[in-house]
Structure formats: C-alpha cells, structure tokens
Amino acid sequence: MANESVAYDKDAVREVLDKARAEGRESLTAPEGRRVCEAYGIPTPGEGLAGTADEAVRLAGELGGPVAMKIVSPDILHKTEAGGVKIGISGDDAVRGAFDEIIANAKAYNAEASIDGIQVQQMLSGGQEVIIGATTDPTFGKVIIFGLGGVLVEVLKDVTFRLAPVDHATAISMLDGIKAAEILRGVRGGEAVDADALADVITRLSDLVTDFPQISEFDLNPVFARPDGASAADVRILLDNTDHAEPVRYSQEEILATMSRMMRPKAVAVIGASAENGKIGNSVMKNLINGGYAGEIYPINPKADEILGRKAYKNIGDVPGDVDVAVFTVPAKFVPQALREVGEKNIPAAVLIPSGFAETGNHELQDEIVKIAREGGVRLLGPNIYGYYYTPQDLCATFCTPYDVKGGVALTSQSGGIGMAILGFSRTSKMGVSAIVGLGNKSDLDEDDLLTYFEQDPDTNIVAMHLEDLKDGRSFVEAAQRITKKKPVVVLKAGRTALGAKAASSHTGALAGDDKVYDDILKQSGVVRAYSLNDMLEFARGIPVLPTPKGENVVIITGAGGSGVLLSDAVVENGLSLMEMPKDLDEAFKAFIPPFGASGNPIDITGGEPPSTYEATIRLGLEDDRIHALILGYWHTIVTPPMVFAELTARVVAEARAKGIEKPVVASLAGDVEVEEASDYLYQHGVVAYPYTTEKPVAVLGAKYRWARSAGLI
Amino acid sequence: MANESVAYDKDAVREVLDKARAEGRESLTAPEGRRVCEAYGIPTPGEGLAGTADEAVRLAGELGGPVAMKIVSPDILHKTEAGGVKIGISGDDAVRGAFDEIIANAKAYNAEASIDGIQVQQMLSGGQEVIIGATTDPTFGKVIIFGLGGVLVEVLKDVTFRLAPVDHATAISMLDGIKAAEILRGVRGGEAVDADALADVITRLSDLVTDFPQISEFDLNPVFARPDGASAADVRILLDNTDHAEPVRYSQEEILATMSRMMRPKAVAVIGASAENGKIGNSVMKNLINGGYAGEIYPINPKADEILGRKAYKNIGDVPGDVDVAVFTVPAKFVPQALREVGEKNIPAAVLIPSGFAETGNHELQDEIVKIAREGGVRLLGPNIYGYYYTPQDLCATFCTPYDVKGGVALTSQSGGIGMAILGFSRTSKMGVSAIVGLGNKSDLDEDDLLTYFEQDPDTNIVAMHLEDLKDGRSFVEAAQRITKKKPVVVLKAGRTALGAKAASSHTGALAGDDKVYDDILKQSGVVRAYSLNDMLEFARGIPVLPTPKGENVVIITGAGGSGVLLSDAVVENGLSLMEMPKDLDEAFKAFIPPFGASGNPIDITGGEPPSTYEATIRLGLEDDRIHALILGYWHTIVTPPMVFAELTARVVAEARAKGIEKPVVASLAGDVEVEEASDYLYQHGVVAYPYTTEKPVAVLGAKYRWARSAGLI
User: Between A and B, how many residue pairs show a Cβ–Cβ distance under 8 A?
Assistant: First the structure.
C-alpha cells in the first residue's frame, strides 16, 4: 500500500523498531524517532547528538541560530520534569552552560540513569504550527490526523481524520477539512503555506504506519508549515508489539455466494416452527406463507408432523432437499445444538431471531455459536433480531407484520426498535422497499456483507443503515467505497455524542469510537450521513425519487417570498449553491412574473399568480440547461389551489422527462391542510414534496447532492 | 443607564467629542481615545506624548520595559503606512533613533502634516489577547462585542454580542458565551484570566457608548487579559455625528388601549366589503360571519345597501356607532382616502390586507398611508397581509378559511405564505390557537406591539413568531424580556444565512442584520429561537402541553435500547442533562426490569416487557422527586401494543398530576403504523409524543427547558 514512487528505507525503520522491541520498550527515543522520520523522508530540523559540551558547541555552530537541547536517556521519559530540556540557546557560552546544567539536572533526577548524550536541535519558528499524526482506532485501525497546533485549536478540537493509507489528493482534502482551513490559505495578507509539502508529510507518515503496524501512535507536533516547506519539530512514537487478531474476513465471492442464497432462497427452514398463536415460531411461519414466499418452507419441530399445512420435520437433518437458510425461533439455549445440525446439513446461512446472548451479558453462549457456525461453514445473521424482509422474493422471515410495497430501498438496523420504526415509516409513506434486515448483535454477518450483496442486487438502488458501531471499520469502508460509486448509502450512526456513546456501550457492549473519527471516515467512504432517525428515513425515501443532478446550479421558484427566504437559508445549510442568474435567464423569468416580483434567485413569482405562472416558470427552469435542480415554494391561494399546483407540476416534470430532461425537483408547500394531499401526489409523481416545512425538501436534495459529489457524478 | 456606582468623567469625554465634532472629524486620535478610556476607567497601558527625542527617552524610562512609539498627527490616519509606528523599542539610543526616524518618515509621507508629537506607550504582553468593542447595529442600536483576539479567531469568528447597556452579570455571560471560553478559564495548566476585570472593561465600555450615542464604533483590540487584570493596548473610536430619527414609540398603555380594541372589538367595519364570491371583501365578510363573531359587522361599500344580510354603508363616516377596527379589502390606491375617513371616525386600528405598497417598490404610497394614519391617530396592521384571527372572540378577519380550535397559542408571521403554513399545521395537528396575525410590511404595528398585548392576554400562554427583520430591535427586546418572564416566546428568524439575508432584502426591502447578532440578542431577550419552520410549529404546539420542569435531571426510560442511544444523542444536542442515577434509585428501577436490562440512564427495560413494566418504571420516574423530566422510548411489540402503551402512560401521568406531580413527559414511538394513533392519543393527554423520530420529542423538551431557564424558573 505504500507510495511506491518514493524510496523508503524500510530496513532502517525495522532496525529501530526491532531494537526497541528487543529492549521491551513501548516508545522510541527522540533520536530514534528522527531516524524513523529520515528513513521515510519526513523533514525534521537539523540536529545531532553531543557527548560533550564541546561537541554541543560545535553542533550548535553548524546548525546556526538558536538551538534546543534535550537529554537523551532511555531511563528518563519525562525530560522536562527532569530539567532535561533547554530551549532558545544562543552563543557558545550559553550552549556550554546549558550542556552542563542538563547533565547535572539529569543526574540529580536519576543518579542511575544511563545517559546517551544531549540532543542539540535547530529551533524552528515562523510559519503555522500544525499537528500531523497517526493513531490506531479500535474500529478503523490506522487513522491519520491533521489539525492546527496550539492551545486554541486544542480547545476547539478542529482536527480531521482519514483512514490510512492516505494518498496525495486525500491528504490535500485534509488541509481543506478543518474549520480554520482559511488560515493555511493565508489570511490578512499572510502567505499561504506549502500545501504540497504538508500533504507529502501526511502521505509519508501514512505509508510508514501502514508498513509498520506495530507503530500504534505517531505524533508530529508541531509541524511548522511555511510557504516554502514543512518540517516536524517534535516526534513522538509509541509501539504496540502485541499481536492483534485480524478480524475474520471473507472474499466478495464468498460473501455473495452465501448472501445470494440467504436473500433469494429456494428453501427456508424454520427451526422451532410452531402451530401455536403468539409464538415467534408461529409468527415467522405465518409471515412466510402469507407474505407469498414461493419457495419451499420446512417447519422444524420435534413434536409436530405438520404446521400451518406444511409438513414438519423433527430435525433439520430429516429435510429431504437442499435448504438455503435456517431461521431460528428457538430459545437461546437450544441454538448451539440446532446450529450444529444446520452445519451438518450444509445450510449456508442461519438467521438467529432469539435473544439471550451478548446483549444480556451471555458472551460465552455467543462465542460458542460463532465457533460452531465457523466450524460448520454457516454464516450467522443476528442473534437478537426481528429477522429480515426481502420483497423481490416476497420473503418475510420475521415475527413482525408482512411488508409488500416493492421498491429499491434496502434498510438495515442494528436495533430492533429502530427496525420497527423503519417498518412503520415505510408503510405510512408507501416507501418502495427491497429489504429490511435486522443485524442485532452482529456476531458474524454485518454491514459490509450486506453492502457487498446490495451492491450487485438489481432490485436495490439505495441502502440506508442504522448502526451503533462497526465490528470491522476497514471492511465497511472498503465495501462502502465500492458500492457508493454506484448506489447511495445513507448511514445513521447512533451514539454520536459522549452520552450517546455511553448508552451504546451499555446496550450492545460495543465500543463506540469518537464521533469525529466516524464522521470523517464515513465521509471518506462515500456514505451520506444522516444525523437523525427521521432524516435517515426521509433520505432513504427521497433520494431514489430524485434524478441525479448534473451540476451545482440550484434555482428556487417561489410563490411566497417568505418561503423563498427560508428555502435560501436551507440551501446554505445543506451545502447547496444558489445559481448566479445570467442576465438573459433572469429576463426570461421576469417575462412571466409581475413587475414587482423579485428577480434573481430565489425567483419570487408573488402570491396571487395563476397556475400558468407556476407552469411557465417551472418549465423554463427545467428546460434551461444551465439550471441543475429546482426548489419550489408553493403558497396556497384560491387562484392556484394545492392540487392544481401539484398536478401542473407533476405534468410539467413528466413532459420534461419525456424529452430526456432529468433534474431533481423538490417542493415545500405552505398552505391549509389540502397541501398534505398535494404533497403526497407530488411525491408519487417524482417530486419530493412536504407540507409545513421549508427545510426537509432541501435536506433531501442536499443528501442527493452529497452522494452525487462523492460518487464523482458532478 | 450608566453604572451609577462608578464615577465617570462625562465632561472629559464630552470635551473630546465636541472638539472632534467641531473639527468635522469622524474618528478620534489615539491620545483622544486614551483620554476617553481614562474618563470611564478603562485601563490602558502607561503612555505619554513626547515632543522631542529627549522627552521620549525620559518617558520610556518612566514606563519601563520596551515601548511602542507612534506618530500623532490629525493629518496621518494610516500610521503604519506612513512609517509612523515602531514597536519593541528598548534603551535610550534606540528610543532616540526611533523618534528621529518616525518624524522623518512622517515628513516624507506628508510634508504638510501638522505633527503633535510621538506617543510613547508601554508595550503589553503576556496574557490572552481579547477584543472588546461596541458597534451600532441598524436593528438593535448599540451592541457590545466580545471575543478572543488573533487571526485564528478572526477566521473562526468566535465572538458574542449583547445589547448595550450590559451589566456585570451579562458581561460575565459574554466570557462564557464564546466557543473557546475554556481558554479564559485556563487550559493546560495555564492560569485563568481575571474575569471580573474583563467584565469591568465591558460594562464601562457599554456605559460609555450608552452615554454618548455619537460614538458609532469602539474597538479595544487587543485587550490583554491577565490573571491579575486587563488593559486595552489599542483603542479605535469612530463617531457618527449625524442625527438619527428615533423610531416612533408608544407607551405600553397606548399599545394596550389600541390592541385591546383591535383584538376584542365590539364592532368591525369591512372597507370594501363585497357580495361577490371570490372577492377578498366577500371572503372577509363570510369569515367574520361564519366564524361566529358576535359583535357588530359593518360592510362599507358605496354601491351596496346590504351585504350578506348586514346593512351596508357608503362611507365609514355613515356608520352610526363606535367602530373598533376597520379591515381594508380595497385596492391599494383607495387606501389613503378611506384611511383618512377611518381617522375622522376615531377608529383606533386599521387592518390593511391589500398589497401594492413597499413590497412592490411603492414606498411612497406606504409612506403616505403611515403619515395619514399617524395624523388620524390610527394604528396600522400590514399592509400586504392575510388579516388576523383571534379565537377568544371568534374573530376571523382574514380572507383565508376560519379556524376555530381554541387554545393558548398565538402565532404571527411576517410572510403570508408562512401564515398559511401555520394555519394548515394548526388544523392538521389540532393545535389550540388564540391568535394568528399577519404582519406583512409592518408599516406600523409590529412584533413588540403584539408581544405587549399577548403578555397580558389571559387567553394566550405562548407566542410563536416568524420574522425576517425587526423594525425596532430595541423595543422588541424590551417587550420580549418582559413577556418571557411569564410566557414562552418562540421565534423563527428567517434570512439567517448570507444567502437567506439577501433573499430577505429583495423581498421586503428589509435589511437583515448579521445572524450572529440576532442569535445572541434573541437569547438575551429570553426568546426560544427555532431554526426551522417545522421546529417553530412543533415548539408552539408542544411547549404549552408540557409542565415547566423544576430541575435539570432528565431520565430516559426505553423499551428499545437502540432508541435509548438515539435519545441520549438528542439529549446532548438539545443541551439537556441525563441525570446521574443515585444508587438507591438505580436499584429501585432495577427491581422492575429484567436482570440484563441496562440500569443507569437510559433505563433500558428491554423490548419484550409487558405493560406493567412500562407502568411501574414510568410511575417511579414521576414519583421520585429527584427526577425532573421523563423521555420515553417505546418499542412496538405484541406484548405491549401501541395503544396499550399510550393509555397506560396517559393514565399514570394523569394520576401523578392528580397528586400534584407535574413533570414534562415526552415520548418517541418506534413501531408499525399504529404508533401514529398512539402518539396522537398521548399528545391529547399531555405527553408530547411522535412516531418515527427520536429527535423531535427531545427537541420540544429542550425548547421548554430553554424557556424555563431564561425565565429563571430552574
């Protein structure tokens, strides 16, 4: 993964790290850190190790300017505390004096300390102090950090993260990714820093920790960023020489082989099927049958011969043909034995509805079933889930009520409660769904397996996921980066505040990472993050309704000036750009609206206008190539009632589509209750429309744009 | 308004300002600035004016340490450009050299310049650089600014504003009001700055600009804030000696006298009443009659004898008895004459529905009617509005459809479109409303008049306002500070982004101020700001439903762990505090929930629990005095269906209220579509509940808390 065009001296680094390991150290000395930096071409200030005061004087003379002097001893970790650091030393006498004083201090601090000498270092100054570092995140592994240095930014926490390895373009994006980025570009007549030099330091550091994963933390702080280069004034390197188990990973082919049989099974077995109402094993059977699933259904129950008209089997091993997925509805304690039999029957996937595993503190039982599954070649969904829906197969393998509005939206949730909210929202909003999948404890199958399946699933065109943690952040990012090039992925990451994270960890035993790490890396992976449950649901519903915009020029056409102002607010908040209106286009719009209507953008057609004004301006907005997306603000009047507006808008949009003009159109409807029906009508006709809110339609448009940009489509 | 305990030398300031005025200057020289600071006890560094090099040497010696030297000349404004500034000068020779060089530079820069001498100033350093200033905002008048100094904060714009005059407590709140406030309190072992000294500078500056309004801008930048004091290193004062017309203001008694007759009229005249369907004058008549208004209705129409069964009059002057309000439905051009007649008839209020005034560029006509109204003693609502509703009187003086769900919510909107959204939302959510008022162009009556009325209106217990600008920010703040002590006020300020503000100004000709000024001053005035239309509406609906909390301890009780995590996120985002659970209380909750349920807060009762578990835990949450507010997370299961949960919750809450226990309870319902009915039921029974969202119920609770805190109730 290393930047192959750069010659790195890996042997030199290996030697330093091996020595530290041999000595049982978990940190490197400053000269070692410097050697590591040099080996990977990370610029550091001139320096040398002085064994005597004379050597120190000579070194200081060679370096020029004031120097910093620091004790070098494997036995003194806290150099400042030991009186082992002097800075800003100029002149031979001062250097000599500092040398003697540091040695004396060090001996007083620890008489037994072995002293290698004193590091004499060129003092850097000028330029902007920044921090560049690497850390090992429990979720994502090696992560690169960039931020401005100094106490102020430490308080404001203005830093940005990326998954390593980081290439040059990504490194440049980190410089732009902090709030105070403007400072790097030069403010108040200050010169811009050398962005390429900083990006170079970032990529080299990234390559280094990628090549040597035993480097657990790496701080270059401060790095002085100047208009003509950058160098790291201080280096701190921590090691973790323990072996970490790699997460179990499967190839895409393996994942697809299993997932395809699970999602499109020819035969489903229900372990613990029951004829008794109210039992989960009964609900699942009913839902499979009533949902219209056309494949074989095998109830497994040691005490029954037949359940709901289907022949029952005592054991899964008794089932005559192949089975693609086994849905478990038995209590937790019966799962291990049944799972063994599922493995013996060569069933590739088990869906574990029962609870009573890690989420109740029973980690042993969960570990046991994971082991059994691995030995038997069975992949597990759950445990502790509601099951899953897959509408292309009319498959409703859950204990909830069936859902049958088919469409392209696949939804997943870590939590059962959120799964139920997904179901209710889908039903009430008539959202076309391909899949709803519960992930629960994620003992095995998780988000990246599902993304790998949905990526190639012709029946899915968007994925929305609720998650509290990622078991394997790196696999998630890999899968997400692949699929988001083709299909949008919306993620609601719960536990994003400190308190929320605490609740998450008491709930699933998951260790929720710092939210800023998630935020930056989710962005890097191309997903659209939703910051609320309702946003996730509305984005899932709205994004596939909207065509992908071809550019950034957004135009607002509004009957209510007041809505225009609020819609403009929403445009800015959602990172969209109101088009600067070309003169000819401005004139063209003006021709349709009263002289006192506001030209420019928003285009305020004014409130008392007839349907023809809405129609003419919307048509112009659709037909002019320079405009890429439309936001409509409708104002309920007697002259243009809600349904009249809805029908004319739907018609004009359909006419444009018939001509091959595909642009996203969203609408905010301000008016009496009839605007609810009008909004529904518009939504069913490809216009994302809401009553009583100016913010929601623009937020959905903004989400579509975020995806289109990350997929490189605009 | 000045801080009376401090002896200010007003005469000294007046003398400086008068001199500058006499000389036609709009800025003060540095020594003048210093004199002004001294007169108000604002500490500045030691300094003096040197006429000769010898004097400069003597002064520098007296001041001690390095000095800054600056040319003082009324003819040289850009001192640095003129080579007239030297800093960090130490030692007699250096001071002498600097003196000569500055004089030479100044003469080279402008040979004609009259030179007063050279200012020799003690150089301050150490401590934290902050900026303290005052400016004259077009909406709010004198406004005080506080922020950290330095280029970084300039980029991050971390400043806070307050309306002057500012008292000591408010000044202290400014120090806490910036994002980087932590720096002032001391970070990384740094000492805290002297907050009282900084607050003292702020209040003195505030008193100064309050006493001398001709000071239009005042910058103390930087002020060095040290652990043992603060002093201003640089002073910049700009003057505006032009006379500004004070906005017309009325006393509270005058406002109430008019507003009471307008809102509770015994007789209403409709100028331009019509029998013809589709005419606005017909709609208004119908709405008045069909809305059930019990007072007299006088149609005014020169061509009719009777309209909708009511005797019509040719002119308003012909009406026999007193009239309290005249509703105008005639075209703009007929307004002036009719308004004159309204004045002659001594009608105190005119409601101007017609458009065609400032909003269409016709400022002259608007100015004319304002003048006529003032001469006639008539207050104007509008023009360019839908009219107004006042349900306690069954009064529907609008051309929209009647609204009759009575309740305590008063809503106002500057925009007609937003007014229609208010109407539709109210109807669909069955919100109990006292008034809906259109403000339109606000040629006269505006938000502060309405606040003054609603403050004492027994039928109103909350006010929600949509606004794009304030004509008189100071009157608004005064009225808002008064009413918000008793009743919550929610404000949606549109045009809050740069783009939004642009749209506002093209729409109403209003000059939208910088949003941060609005944000801070709205907070200072005690209003709850909503940042979206839907939030404004939901806050208006929900806040009066919830009792006022008595403390900050919020507890989440949830059936779905996943909802618990999202609800915790929302708690943090809304500035609420999850209660640290005392051991005994934790044990008490644990007694009701399964052993694997999560204790602490959120209390995760787990998903499979029967109604009795919800009931027992909710009751305990209500009855324990240490808990001040409850957030419920419901998870739809067969064991506890939605309506069962809704009914038991409503019952337990009602039982507690019967015992005098009043706590806000909000709920998020995750489940299939039945949760919609359950949420409605809960809302009707005093629990603010929503389906498919974890964020909205917590946002409403957060809004209630914001108001309760600002009113000093917790």
Answer: 290
